[in-house]
Task: structure prediction
Amino acid sequence: MELSSLAKTWILDIDGTIVKHNGYKIDGKDTLLDGVKEFFYSINPEDKIILLTARKKENIKDLKEFLKKNNIRYDIILTEMPPGERILINDKKPSGLLTAYAVNKMRDEKLTIKYIVNKEL
Result:
């Protein structure tokens, strides 16, 4: 992915994307997936991070503590999301810059989203 140098909004699902899917139910705790720390460290501090989950609000306290302990930063966690598709719709800038991307990764696999920042975009 080739991205501009503008500040970005990152929207990530939690279970199966950054932690083991349903690990908090199956194992009694969350487990960070491989590559997650490196990916989050690569995100510009000016960017915003929104996390999505189907988890109920009452299950979020432990998750927030887990994320803090693992230095996974975020700005917002949206809970009780439906389990179906998540659809992002955004307008294209007059310059032609695309302002929306979607990535599907294999559940519970390493997070290896590669991108470069092109300062000319």
Notes: Strands lie at 2-3, 9-13, 48-52, 76-78, 116-117. The helical segments are 23-26, 36-42, 60-69.
